Amino acid sequence: MAALQSLRLPAKLTDRLSTGWLNFAVLFLILLPLVIGVGLVIKSLPLLEQASTWKMLSSAEFSPQQGHFGFYAFIMGSALVTLLSFVLSAPVCLLAAIYLTEYSPAWLTQTMYFVIDVLAGIPSVVYGVWGVLVVVPLLAGYVAPALGLSTTGYCLLSGGVVLAIMAVPYMLNMLMEVFRSVPVELKEASLSLGATYWETIKWVVLRKGITGIIAALSLGISKALGETIAVLMVVGNVAKVPKSVFDAAYPLPALIANNYGDMMSVPLYDSALMFAALLLFVIILVFNSITNVLLSRVKEV
């Protein structure tokens, strides 16, 4: 009896230690975004104390040497290149996921899983090099002239195309898992009531998986918002608001990556770059919050 009690004590101690480590891990993950946000705010304070936040957000003039820190062009560059990549990738991923889960043979679906893994594993710099070697010359030499326009190829559209391709494996993989999780019994019930296969997909599969579809698409947008190297290499990096998809742009991640470590002797320049990082952090936070609210509303319907 005493031996059994001596064995139980270590087991209880192990359970407590395990629970403690699990709680610590969860707490760490919960506090991590808060710590990052507070750190960015602290580093941005020197600029925030000397310049109007509204003026910085609404002005497109960015000249650190003269003390002008307008981030409007960078915010628009990030928003437009992300929106363009979403418009290019979301319909393709949605239709491809429907075909691969509902119509294609098993060997093709398995092959696509392998292709998705390969695309997800390719470094972003490789996508950037591919964009410089393929997308930029294609737009500059063929697409723009065919439309009667002139461009260097380093433009918003190049960044959108590269970002769209980079977002495909994440969105497509998640969409396929969403559609595969729809119970077979629901589809069989729909078919037994006389619905066609496409009607079953439209009214059963898509409706049942609507929350997963929204989550998958939001994942692609979040991926595009934070991408740096590949976009930096093809988007042109000109601090002005693009008026067309063939104009150069300058997203926030590219601004930070291009300039951090250089020109730190310029007053407030380090703080300005940290403020750019804070803007990007807030944009992603607001977007994810809106997505979560939308998902909760959809679940209630």
From TrEMBL:
<comment type="function">
    <text>Part of the binding-protein-dependent transport system for phosphate; probably responsible for the translocation of the substrate across the membrane.</text>
</comment>
<keyword id="KW-1003">Cell membrane</keyword>
<feature type="transmembrane region" description="Helical">
    <location>
        <begin position="272"/>
        <end position="295"/>
    </location>
</feature>
<keyword id="KW-0812">Transmembrane</keyword>
<feature type="transmembrane region" description="Helical">
    <location>
        <begin position="71"/>
        <end position="100"/>
    </location>
</feature>
<keyword id="KW-0813">Transport</keyword>
<feature type="transmembrane region" description="Helical">
    <location>
        <begin position="21"/>
        <end position="42"/>
    </location>
</feature>
<feature type="transmembrane region" description="Helical">
    <location>
        <begin position="112"/>
        <end position="139"/>
    </location>
</feature>
<keyword id="KW-1133">Transmembrane helix</keyword>
<feature type="transmembrane region" description="Helical">
    <location>
        <begin position="151"/>
        <end position="172"/>
    </location>
</feature>
<dbReference type="InterPro" id="IPR051124">
    <property type="entry name" value="Phosphate_Transport_Permease"/>
</dbReference>
<keyword id="KW-0592">Phosphate transport</keyword>
<dbReference type="GO" id="GO:0005315">
    <property type="term" value="F:phosphate transmembrane transporter activity"/>
</dbReference>
<dbReference type="InterPro" id="IPR011864">
    <property type="entry name" value="Phosphate_PstC"/>
</dbReference>
<dbReference type="InterPro" id="IPR000515">
    <property type="entry name" value="MetI-like"/>
</dbReference>
<feature type="domain" description="ABC transmembrane type-1">
    <location>
        <begin position="75"/>
        <end position="291"/>
    </location>
</feature>
<dbReference type="GO" id="GO:0006817">
    <property type="term" value="P:phosphate ion transport"/>
</dbReference>
<comment type="similarity">
    <text>Belongs to the binding-protein-dependent transport system permease family. CysTW subfamily.</text>
</comment>
<feature type="transmembrane region" description="Helical">
    <location>
        <begin position="210"/>
        <end position="235"/>
    </location>
</feature>
<protein>
    <recommendedName>
        <fullName>Phosphate transport system permease protein</fullName>
    </recommendedName>
</protein>
<dbReference type="InterPro" id="IPR035906">
    <property type="entry name" value="MetI-like_sf"/>
</dbReference>
<dbReference type="Pfam" id="PF00528">
    <property type="entry name" value="BPD_transp_1"/>
</dbReference>
<keyword id="KW-0472">Membrane</keyword>
<dbReference type="GO" id="GO:0005886">
    <property type="term" value="C:plasma membrane"/>
</dbReference>
